[in-house]
Specification:
41% helix; alpha/beta; 7 strands; 15% strand; seven-stranded mixed beta sheet
Length: 257
């Protein structure tokens, strides 16, 4: 149905060692989610967007993944790049935001900024989101007409099957994510790193109640993305995200010199 997927990393390593951008995707997503940012990044900026453990693999393998495994993966990334670069900026979507917030709390001096996209501190399940998952799971990609669902299919990070029993394996990582959200509510209160949180006005997965939790931390600036959903952003929102990141990069480079 959808096979031959393999984990991969999108990256560019330059001679500029002032800062590197680390981009973490959401659950059942892929690094390709960040292509719109990668296309606009200045050529002298290094970046890395890894596939999180368990993704781009069959459901059975995805089922072995957990927050603990993902947190260890990100800690290993930090250990690697913190030795090579003066600063690290994290850009993250959904699950990825929980991982970067935890990492920033451990290394506040090395991580000056976080760019958080659809941070899931409070979640809900709208009918539209259930429709998206069912359509992506049981329809061939070329048969999907809805633009939002098609985009979700494009970035889907687990091999899909028309056998419904294969999705039983998804229970463990999703349950682990729920526990990660509970932890994230505590971590966000401790966050001292400057952050910009982008929240989609039509997010079908992250509840607007998340905004209340984000507003309690004065280090977090909130930006509402108009005409955007959890997986699909408007062109205007994409531009706003990219501009925010470039400003973070410029500020980081100035301070390090």
């Amino acid at each position: 149905f959808r096979s031959n997927m393999k984990p991969y990393t999108l990256e560019r390593i330059t001679d500029n060692k002032d800062v590197i951008v680390v981009m973490l995707h959401g659950i059942i997503e892929l690094p390709i989610f960040y292509q719109f940012i990668i296309d606009k990044l200045p050529e002298n900026i290094s970046y890395v967007a890894p596939t999180l453990e368990g993704h781009a693999l069959p459901s059975r393998e995805f089922g072995k993944a957990s927050m603990k495994i993902w947190e260890k993966q990100i800690e290993n990334l930090y250990e690697k790049y913190s030795k090579e670069y003066k600063k690290i900026i994290f850009v993250d979507h959904s699950l990825g935001t929980l991982l970067s917030i935890t990492e920033a709390n451990k290394h506040p001096d090395k991580i000056p900024y976080l760019l958080l996209l659809n941070c899931p501190l409070k979640i809900w399940m709208k009918a539209s989101n259930l429709k998206t998952y069912l359509t992506v799971g049981f329809h061939k990609k070329d048969k999907i007409k809805d633009e939002t669902i098609k985009h979700a299919s494009d970035i889907c990070g687990v091999e899909l099957s028309q056998n419904p029993f294969s999705y039983v394996y998804w229970a463990k990582p999703f349950y682990s994510l729920l526990r990660g959200i509970k932890k994230g509510k505590k971590e966000i209160k401790k966050l001292k790193t400057t952050a910009i949180a982008f929240h989609a006005d039509n997010d079908e997965l992250v509840s607007k109640k998340t905004l209340k939790l984000l507003k309690e931390n004065n280090n977090i600036q909130i930006h509402i993305m108009k005409n955007s959903s959890h997986y699909l952003y408007s062109d205007e929102s994409k531009d706003d995200i990219t501009k925010a990141l470039i400003e973070m990069l410029n500020n980081t480079i100035v301070r390090s010199n």
